[in-house]
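Example record for the data management plan.
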Amino acid sequence: MKKSPWFLLLIAFAVVMSGCQVNTKKDVVENPPSQDANNKSAVTIELLGMSTGESDLNIIRDQLTKNGFNVKLNIQPDYGSYKAQEEAGNYDVSLTSWTTVTGNPDYAVRSLFKTGGDYSIIADPELDTLIDQASTQTPEQFVDTYKQLEQKLVFDKAYIAPLYSSLKSQGLNQEVLDKDSVRLSKSRSLVWENIDFKDKSKRTTDPLLLTQANPVLTSLDPIKGNDGSINMINTNMYVRLLNLTDDDKITTDGSLSYNHSIAEGNSEYYFVLRDDIHFAKVTNKAAVDTKERVGADDVIFSLNRAKDKNSVPDHRTYSLHEHIKNVEAITDLKSLEAIKQSGSTETIKAGLEKGLETPIKELVADKTKASSKDGKYQVIKLTTTAPFPQVLNYLAHQSGGIVSKKQVESINTYDVAKFDVNKDIPYGDQNTVTEGNKYNNTLYASGPYILSYKNDYEAVFIKNPGYMKGTAHEPKITNIKLRFIKDTDSALSALRSGEIHVYYGVPETKFDLVKGDSKLALQTLPSNAVSYLLFNTGKRDIAKNEDLRKAVLYSINQDEFLQFYNNNKFKAVSTVSPLVTTGNELKADPAKAKEYLDKYKASVK
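Corresponding structural encoding:
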């Protein structure tokens, strides 16, 4: 007996509302959704995603099917496999996401949508102009520019189709951990050095147990990776000139700088460096203080290589630092007294001295000569290519992590232009920290923890014994084990059974389970994460067609995603939605979807 269309719609609505009856990957492969018998001319498109996003993929598939598409799902088991498919161009549209971990809107667009951006497959001069224009503007000025950018990106050209923005969340075992010591930041990754046990006597005996899904680490060189496999790790292994507060304000708290100051014109930025951070290395899988101080030469080296696309093969973050023109150590104290701070009558020297125990008496070039108690400091001056206050947010990003000049230069002896992946072993290669015959840990960590070794099951980190000793930022817990658990249900089960202490990134569909367990606590706040569909405009002819892309765009009903996630998701228009209120809104429109799909069909006949 043939079911009526209204009956089928009610069934589909019930599936979305239930949140527990979505098809599994097995269902999708063995029982693909049937097409309407009268819709023999449905357009086939290939949708790429990961198994962790299976629910979203099923909702997207159903929405597109209703609007005249035949959806072929390409579901990959992990991030590495997904990226391989993406880089090979084996998709028409991919389910992707982006989290603005720097707290500034330029980061939300530059790498993704600017011609030549680290992750961009788009080449549109108008988008480039708007991105660059907004980057030089104040928050009051850039709202209209980002509104224009969204209009072009989403509605005029349909390069992306937005789905939703998310809450940031983590569950923790409040019987084991001091709940108040576990931070949840809007943009910054989980801060390890603050975390403490309720029973302080366990600090040196028991490991802190964390988890992440991906066991394959892109790179432990902070400029060579910008993804979920290493963001949390590299954030805690390398110190930066600046950090972000939990609500995305720029701070020197817990950074390499005591203070920072901006000169008139917003193109010159000054930082007075701490003298109580040493690099750590690993010997016999134990953390050792190298006694080498993290200093100005390391900062200059790190930021110069960060901005240079050709400093390393497969540089993933250079566009974040392309506004850096020059980085240098200042040794002329009088020059700091001759320059005024931006928007102030005070000098740069006065700005840098605020809160210092001893005023600046002397500037030294040699990092071994710096002594804050004697008033001898190192000061870094960073100059940008144009007035660009958002550069401070990028310095707080994990790719702004400070590496050892001496160590990296001793490892990266290869010719970048002739780099041979089968022969050359770069600094940060995950194979060098993986147990087995290739293990040869050459890491030098400037941050609170260093990675000792990893295997398929876990990564083991040890406290840097030379990191801010005796301060509030000296790491509380000696050992950390990062367990690799791909499946969200398994991760939640591990949290509930005590196998892990913190589950960073609890899915919205699991919130009630965490709330219902008395030994657990759930922390949430609105995040800067946005999920969206990206069209393969570079390698697939079907995705190059603007009408086809708009047909997909207007097939997306964000309300259904919000319903599925119990309203723990929020509507979005672009990756800047969590940061800038533009007033734009995407509304599902089946009539428009049909109109544009018909135009596409007519154009390919």
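Summary line stored alongside the record: Confidence is low (pLDDT under 50) at residues 1-38.
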